[in-house]
Amino acid sequence: MSVSISAVVLLLIVVILLIRKSGLRPAHAVASILLGFYLAGSRFAPIIQDLALNAAQMIAKVRF
């Protein structure tokens, strides 16, 4: 569960930075958020969750 919360916080920071620096309009951000909610309720949700988990595990294995 901590991976999901961290991903949400990270994505929120990315959206805020995009709104401030790259000209992302708030309407686009809201549309993206709504798309995320609809995807979470779709049949693609387990696939997306597995991809995100695998990406997080791959990042965790990287050693600096």
Key features?
64 residues, mainly alpha
In short:
The protein is mainly α and 64 residues long. 81% of the residues lie in helices and 0% in strands.
SSE pattern, N- to C-terminal: HHH
Structural class: mainly alpha
Share in β-strands: under 5%
Distance between the termini: 25 Å
**Rg estimate, integer Å:** 14 Å
Number of helices: 3
- Summarize model confidence as the mean pLDDT: 83
Number of strands: 0
Low-confidence stretches: none
Description:
- The protein has three helices and no strands.
- It starts with a helix and ends with a helix.
- It has 64 residues and is mainly α.
- The model has no long low-confidence stretch (mean pLDDT 83).
Strand-helix topology:
Elements: H1 2-21, H2 26-40, H3 45-61
